[in-house]
Amino acid sequence: QLQLMESGGGLVQPGGSLRLSCVASRGTLDAYAIGWFRQAPGKGREGVSCISKSGGNTQYAPSVKDRFTIFRDNAKNTVYLQMNNLKPEDTAVYYCRAGLFWGQGTQVTVSS
């Protein structure tokens, strides 16, 4: 059974950057397409970005396109989400998903 763990969240000012990581502590990620999702307070969970098994194909929600970049290093069993030019509306708990498996989430807060 796959176990996922996100890290890299924190408090950042508007315009700042963070890099989130999704690591498989048990199992390997290279058999899965990976998605990043987020859930803001009082809102439903929304898809942010996804990446194919090989990393050759990526997709982004319109709200993050050109600001966020998803990439993976299968040798390190890790998928990353580079987030630049962060906005207050990016504040949420961010989760990664592989198939039916979810991580526990990492909090991102964008505030001055």
Entry summary:
With 112 residues, the protein is mostly beta strands. The chain has strands spanning 3-7, 10-12, 18-26, 34-39, 45-51, 58-60, 68-73, 78-83, 92-98, 101-102, 106-110.
Structure description:
This protein is mostly beta strands. Helices cover 0% and strands 53% of the residues. It contains no helices and 11 strands. The protein has strands spanning 3-7, 10-12, 18-26, 34-39, 45-51, 58-60, 68-73, 78-83, 92-98, 101-102, 106-110. The strands form 2 sheets. Strands 2, 4, 5, 6, 9, 10 and 11 form a 7-stranded mixed β-sheet that branches. A 4-stranded antiparallel β-sheet has the order 1-3-8-7, with no helix packed on it. Strand 5 and strand 6 (58-60) form a beta hairpin. The protein is globular and about 40 Å long.
Main attributes of the structure:
4-stranded antiparallel beta sheet; mainly beta; 7-stranded mixed beta sheet; 112 residues; 53% strand
Task: Compute the average pLDDT.
Answer: 96
N- to C-terminal distance: 40 Å
Based on CA atoms alone, the radius of gyration comes out at 13 Å
Number of helices: 0
Q: List SSEs in N-to-C order.
A: EEEEEEEEEEE
The major sheet is characterized as: 7 strands, mixed
